[in-house]
Each structure stands twice: as C-alpha cells, then as structure tokens.
Amino acid sequence: MGELAAGSVYAQYSFWLETCGDDLTPRPRLEGTIDVDVAILGAGFTGLWTAYYLLQREPSAKVVILEQKIAGFGASGRNGGWLYPGFPVSLGELASRYGVETARAIHYAMRATVDEVERVLREEGIDAHFHRGGVLRLARGIHQVPALEETARTLERLGITDYAEWLSAEAVRERIRVTNAVAGLYSSHGAVIHPGRLVRGLARAVERRGATIFEETPVIEFRGGIRPVFRTPYGDVRARVLVLAGEAYLSQLRQLHRALIPIYSLIVLTEPIPDELWNELGWSNRELLSSQRLTVDYLQRTADGRIMFGGRGAPYRFGSRIADAFDRHGPTHEMLRQMCYEWFPALRLHGIRFTHAWGGPLGVPRDWMPTMRYDPRTGIAMACGYTGQGVATANLAGRILADLITGRDSELTRFPMTQHRLRPWEPEPLRWLGVRFVQIGYERLDRIAESTGRPPSGKSLVERIAAH
Fold first, then answer.
1. Residues 159-207: pLDDT tens digits?
2. What GO CC terms are in its UniProt record (predicted)?
3. I need a labelling partner for 125 at 20 to 30 A (CA). Which of 155, 207, 251, 372 fits?
4. Rounded Cα gap, residues 255 and 360, in angstroms
5. Is the pTM value of this prediction over 0.90?
6. What gap in Å lies between CA 86 and CA 293, rounded to an integer?
7. Is the peptide bond before 370 cis (omega within 30 degrees of 0)?
8. CATH C-level class of 3-79+195-257+367-418
C-alpha cells in the first residue's frame, strides 16, 4: 500500500479523521527490540494524555507509544465530540457505592477536566473547534420527564446546586426547536469539539515533547514482572512501566479477553445546513444535545453547520469480536437517520441529505466502573472502561496514571478508580445471551414508553441488571 493510499484509507473510518487536517500517512512501525522507560499500548486519548503528562512531569523520560493502526484510529477518532463532565457511572450510583463526598469529588474533577483540556488546546495551539456551549438534556415526551427529574434531584441531594438549571418547554424552544421537547436540564459545563483534530493534534504535541509513536505496530502479548515487555510482530519493547490504554481493543488480547466487552456506537451526519434553515432550528450556541432514551442518543452541531446524530443499536458480536465490517450496521444507521428527521422535521422538508455514516467499538466493564490503576510490583498500568464517556474521562485518566507512575500523591490518586479491579465478564455463550438480553430489552422499553407515554418503571429485570 502506497503512503497516499494508506492515508486515504484511514480517512474513510470517520468524518473526523477525514477532516482532521493532519497527514494520516502511517508513522514508521517498530523495527527490532528496544528498551525504554515507559511503553504505552494505544495512541488514542488515554495513551496520548498519559504520555503528555508523564513527559510534563519527567521531560527526560523515554516514552514510546505502540499503535496497531494510526493515532486516533479507535474511539478517539470516531466519537460524538462530547467534552463534558459526564462519567461512566452516574452520580447517584457513585454516591451509593463510594459515598457522597467521593461522588462530589469525582464530579468536580470532571468539571475541571473540561477546563484542563481547553488549557492544553490553547497552550499547544491545537484547533479542535472547541466551543463551550454547554449540555442540554431533553425530555422528549412526558415519559422522559421522570428520568430528567431524577437527575435534578440527585444533583440537589448531593449539594451540587451550581451545575444545571431546569428548563420549561418554552425555555427549551428559545434555545432549539426539537419536536416533543417538554422539558430540559441545561448545564454550561461542557464543550463541543472535533475529536479528530484533538487526537491528531495531541499526537503531534506528544512527539514535540519527546515521545515516539510507532504506528501499524500491534501488541500481540504483554508480560509484567521483573522485565515488563510488549511483544509485537516486529520486535519487543522492554520498559520499566507498561501502560495498557487500548479501551475496547484490549478485549482482543488473550490476557484481557473478558475484562471489557466491545459495544458498537454508530453515527450519521448531515450535509452542511443553510443559514436560513438554522434560523428556523435555533441551536445557535451549539449545545451538546441528548434525550433520556435508554438506548442512548447524542447530538452535536459541527463547526461547519452539520448535525451529527449518534446512538446505540448495533448488536453485540459473539466472542467480543471487533471487525471493520461492524462499523456500519445498515438498520441502525437508517434508524438514526429517521430519528434525526423526527427530531428536526424541517430537515426532510428542505431535502437535507446525510453524507456520512460510521461507527466503532467502545469498552464496557462488567460493573460499568472505569479502571485507572498502576501496580509497581508488575510494572503494569491500565486505564479503560469508559462506556462511551471517554472524551473527558480519558484526560482525567492520563493525569491519574502520570501521578501514579511518577509516585506523586494527589487528590486524583485517591479516587476509587485507582483501586478498581476489572471483574471478568461471563464466558460465552452466557456473555452474548446476557448482553443481547439487555440490548433488546432496552429497545423494547423505549418503544413501549414512546407508544404509551408511560416511563420505564426502573423495576424490570433488564433495568436492574444494567443499572449504573
């Protein structure tokens, strides 16, 4: 494959990579065995942020990143561009598991993470189309109001009174015209970004600080202990510390096959929308936008005036398989297009077309809780399990791992993620049966709620199994 052809192939994986403004020609692969201080698996947000903060703390450290494709190939180059304080485990569940003060501390750390990413973008000169428009959660129909009210009650119960404000249907309409929007919960603590420009710009920033990125160099095995090592088809990388930062792709390693499951999230994107139609739709502040569907939806208005509409729906694949063919699932992509037209009927009336469709796997741990830990006895560090909430969480993970690896005691290193151990998922076929039961059950609950106007009870088996 020629260099030009290789770059154009990778551009096809998402609109974000296609328009990132960076040369996607793969960097050189590893050739031979080398010795370094820190070796990182994965050149996505987690691996790059970890390298960035490690080199900030120890500028002379020899840091190498091994990437099986190119920087940003995985979820970091395909996500919804939601840079906001959302955490994989809800505030209420965090309080239940770890106490109110810990839940509050994680929430405020996530809020500070948005500011930290903005600071780095400014300092490194990365134009990621950052726009702090906030987050708007909608209740589309009366059946979604109880879930939104529960979120508001949880914030109040935890004493987090400065985060969000309740919006009436009229107040929502002043911001954006979405069908069936009867209420909203708005927070200014969030920003929309172009994730492809962020991840590719961050890779360049890490290289400027002295890291080396080897691309098209898959790790096929790792070993901790006295001599930690990553094994690749092209040589070994021996290091004082190994960092596992491959998110869903970690499930493809033999030692971690049941640590996470890869769940596919899919996205469709419209063509640029004319200004006169935007005047009709509103959304001038480019808020991150979602509803209360159990099966998840997430939207953004891009810097060039498109609507990105993402959601779940693609089926879990037996054996935790990951393949390019799974990035596109016709029924789910068509469902997302029709949902977008349903939210914004004017798009159909004006003949607005969809130009892009893509997807990719995200990593889901058995208990939904992300892991950000380092074991100095084995020399292995790991951060993973964001369940689709990784844009900001990965930055927090990078700072935590950098603190742990360099021996710095901080408020961040006392968070429960640093002691969390991944609970293995069930073996197949139980894993497939359980995950598909939840996926199909959520779809059914959404259909019933939308057709009857009655909210899910919260007591069904599927809701109790997947509560987080």
1. 999 999 999 999 999 999 999 999 999 999 999 999 999 999 999 999 9
2. cytoplasm
3. 372
4. 22
5. yes
6. 16
7. no
8. alpha beta
